[in-house]
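so my prof wants the structure for this chain in the tokens format not the other one, which i didnt know existed until like an hour ago. anyway here's the sequence
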Amino acid sequence: MPHYFSNFRSFDYNLPPLGMTNRVTDITKRFVIRDFYKKNLFSFFRYDVSDSQRPDNVAYELYGDSTLDWLILLPNEILDPYFQWPLGQNQLNEFIRKKYGSISSALAEIHHYEQIIQTRTEIINSDGEKIVVPERTLQVDQTTYTSLPINSKRQVTAYDYELAKNERNRTISIIDATYVPSIVERFRNLYA
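here's what i got, hopefully its the right format
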């Protein structure tokens, strides 16, 4: 996202205790994707990030310009691409090792307990279309967990928790390419 900040104004910031002045980027001005784009369902589509893709790769693939990575991050409210963007499997394993000590420790540690309210089901509607009804769960304490029937409860390990959290980051919203030129123009006019 370094190209995003290249259009921001910079100014000299005086650091009296150090007796020096630094040139800094003014990050106080924010560019907001207009509510129209956020509310208009037809201006976005769903995209699943693959294991090794970065925001600049996605921008190049979809818009033909890797410097538009900010158009991938901002609409998804991703402020920290290191922890809000999906990690590749090797990166995820390294993160888990650092956080829990080892993969086996993460697999052995219970993160939380869940009650399964509704299992994932597939139904066929009157038009013959398959509709997937997702699983619904509720996080419960250990006492409640032990009182539940065996087929309506689950222990979630720390490893499974981190894996599921990473997988949720894979599905992002992408702005339809037809709207990109007008957004880029508004952005450039704001910082001109």
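also thought this was worth mentioning. Residues 89-168 form one domain.
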